[in-house]
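To: structure desk
From: M.T.
Subject: fold request, one chain
Message: Could you run this one when you get a chance? Sequence is below, nothing fancy, just the single chain.
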Amino acid sequence: MLSLLFAALSGVLMALQGALNSALGKVVGLLEATFVVHVVGSIVGLVLLLVGLGSGNWQNWGQAPWYTYLGGLLGVGIVYLVVASIAKIGVAPATTAIIVGQVSMAALIDFFGWFGHEPLPFNYLKGLGLTLMALGAWLLLSR
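Reply: Done. Structure tokens follow.
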């Protein structure tokens, strides 16, 4: 239950982040805001590591598969596209579309067991859930 609460809190933070990043993008530009967001995040992450809040082993970095390092590259694309979409359609519709995209990709990852995850079945109820989420996104876009 605590993990679900953490996941919901991350969703709250993502919506706040998207709105703040979009506001920054209006002032400095899309790519510039993307850069600033990653620099600030890197500095905060470094400070947290330096004060001892990390729990991993830096020595194991070479043991991770090469593709696991693509997250940083994807992060740049994510922030840029979030800033661009929120500026055009608003926070709620963009966030809903983001969630539909996230859940759709997550369902594929689960089904095929990509990246070392245990394969999970996909059934008509999950398909219905995705369809209803997409309908919700469309309803939020209609004015």
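Reply (cont.): The chain has two domains: 16-49+64-89, 90-143. Let me know if you need anything else for the meeting.
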